[in-house]
Design a protein that fits this description.
mainly alpha, 4 helices
């Protein structure tokens, strides 16, 4: 599976799991559907970015760091929209998802096929 497609699929799955962790915050339980949908979209965006980076740079640690950065950046965007409430509860899973995506796209994604010029 190519790196971007792997990032999209894994990002959607991990994003949904990230959103599901909101269940552990009782005040957020009434908004679970929206949180899961938003986290899934955030995971897909991070997966596309990590997959794109993995196609350009073949370095496991750079991919992991890039994925972590993108995951934290997207999570911070969500925190900023919410006024900073639940900072740790949003940033931690977002960073973990990004790091996993960066690692997985580097390690398990197939390289892009060479095109004839």
């Amino acid at each position: 599976m190519n790196k971007i497609l792997l990032g999209i699929i894994l990002g959607a799955v991990l994003g949904a799991l990230d959103g599901a962790t909101a269940w552990f915050t009782p005040e957020a339980r009434s908004q679970m559907l929206g949180i899961i949908i938003g986290s899934t979209i955030k995971g897909v965006i991070a997966g596309i970015a990590a997959g794109w980076f993995a196609r350009k740079v073949q370095n496991l640690w750079a991919g992991l760091a890039f994925g972590l950065f993108v995951g934290l950046l997207l999570a911070y965007a969500i925190v900023a929209m919410g006024g900073g409430k639940y900072f740790f509860e949003i940033m931690l899973p977002g960073g973990i998802v990004g790091a996993i995506l960066g690692f997985a796209t580097q390690r398990y994604g197939a390289p892009a096929l060479a095109t004839a010029k």
